[in-house]
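ClcB-like voltage-gated chloride channel protein: structure tokens wanted.
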Amino acid sequence: MRVITRLVSSFRQTWQHLSERLGDAENLSTLLWAIPIGIVGALVTLGFRHAIDLIHLAAFGKTADVVELAQSSEWYMRLIVPTLGGIVAGFLLLLSRRYTKATAHSDYMEAITLGDGRIPVRQTLARSSSSLCSIATGSSIGQEGPMVQLAALCASLVGRFRTISPEQMRTLVACGAAAGITSVYNAPIAGAFFVAEIVLGSIVAERMPPLIMASVVANLTMRSLPGYHSIYSVPLFEPLSLSQDLMFILLGILLGALAPLFLWLLEHSRKRIDQIHLPLPVKLGCGGLVVGLISVFYPQTWGNGYSVINDFINHPWPWTAVAALLVFKVLATTASAGTGTVGGIFTPTLFVGAAIGVLFASLVEHLAPTLHAPTFTYVVVGMGAFLAATSRAPLMAILMVFEMTLSYDIVLPLLLCVVAGYYISGAFSPRSMYAVTAKNNELWKARNQTRNLKVKAILNEGAQTVPASATLEEVLQTFREQIVKFVYVIDENGLLVKIVALRDLNRAQAAGTLDANLLARDLPGHTLPLLHPYDNLTVALEAFLNHPGERLPVVESQACPRLLGYISKSQVLAHLKLYL
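Answer:
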């Protein structure tokens, strides 16, 4: 027993010593817990993929990429499978609604940004099962959504069995999401920055270590398991000329202009279909039917588009076939997402960018052959730029493409294209594929506006003034009528002469030192901080910290103290609420 006690005591001392040397104990604990969360996130992703293979084995008698299964199936199977898959997914989605709680945030992004990090278990499992059925039966939706959600759920469960603060719980769930993204796309840096840039809305040094730890561990776990490979097979890049690089600015402008249209189609389809009151199984079944009808002629529209992107990169395609496939793929994705199918649109977005890249390459080859770069360059860069334009996360998109190619030569055209696409899309619309990104952007704009807000914007006129020639009785009458603590004495030009406090007058009267014949200019003065119309609200807040009252006067300038009015502490705090 003594040995155990000594071991426990020794462990506590060691832990305390490490905490003092490495930083706060909570931050160290979060960093260490990111390791098992990264492992679990990778295993969950792998398990989801195996579940898809099992459904394929049951439905088609073999396991293969969903596009390959569609191409090798009879036309009626292409029609029936997505429809039945949508119906089953709809019933599972109905089941998930039975477990919905008004106070819970089922989506991991909301659990991190709005909630306390707790993700409901039964609802998440039911929704993920619904998504599994849709994805395995060809729905034009991304696999990353349920995989990341399940990884985040596991992280939430880890935190739930420990006594931790809500902030630490949210960080653990963010680690789970980073591990999930990394495991799906084999991009550990982009996985960490996806959560930081999109979900958290800012890249803060204190938040990055656990996210990076979880991402790296998840990637190492995936590498140690059989079947690991790069998600996209990209040929070696060769340096491009300056004129070739500049062509990617035009591609970025095109992608930036089309990104808001793509997001509008997705949003509009959801709104219009929501207005149609049908049972969920019927709605999702109709979405599957649309995908099935399209796949009778274009089987490549099945799935998230991953295998077709690889084909774009490594094999030549006629532009007419790419254009037709692009139109029908967007239609299939719109039908799937619009009917409420659970899943992501990350990879379908990459598909759209890749297809537009192929079309742009064909156009450049036709109009300016000397400026034409290898087609796969336009494909890969187009993926990154369209992702940045739709997600409003340019850094994450750049890192993801760089990790997929591991080529420095692609950096310059990628940067030019991403920056152009990002700003052009923002000029047209602030939409993002993720609602949380739009909220973060709105919050950032509000904070920026508040930070630059001037005192004159909240200036109140009608400060309680008395002329310098007013008698003591007139000053006291002003205090009685206006019920204020201070009055401002001004001269005939409106310049502030002094500030008189009621408390000072009461004390002077009690001490018998107040002469009834005194004029306002001769009364005891009180010192208050003076604000100017072009001071920032942060300056006003600092002034209020040194003043217990509710109001402070605003004068034109220190050299010319013409009284303009006053501002109140409650106004300043109300406007600084977002910034703080």
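The first helix runs from residue 2 to 22. The two ends are 52 Å apart (CA to CA).

Cheers.
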